[in-house]
Amino acid sequence: DALPEWAPRAAPGVLAAVDAAAHDLAAREKGVAVHELLGLPAPGDVPTARTIGIVPVEQAVRTAVELTGQGFTVLKIKMGGGDDLNRLAAVRAAAPNVGLLLDPNGAWQPDEAVRFLESAAQHGISAVEQPIPAGTPDLLGWVAQRSPIPVIADEDAAGLADVRTLGSRVHGVNVKLAKCGGLRAARELIDTARAAGTDVMLGCLVASSLGIAPAVHLAGLARWVDLDGHLLLAEDPWDGIGGTAGTLRLSGEPGLGVRPREEP
Question: What is the pTM of this model?
Answer without folding.
Answer: 0.94
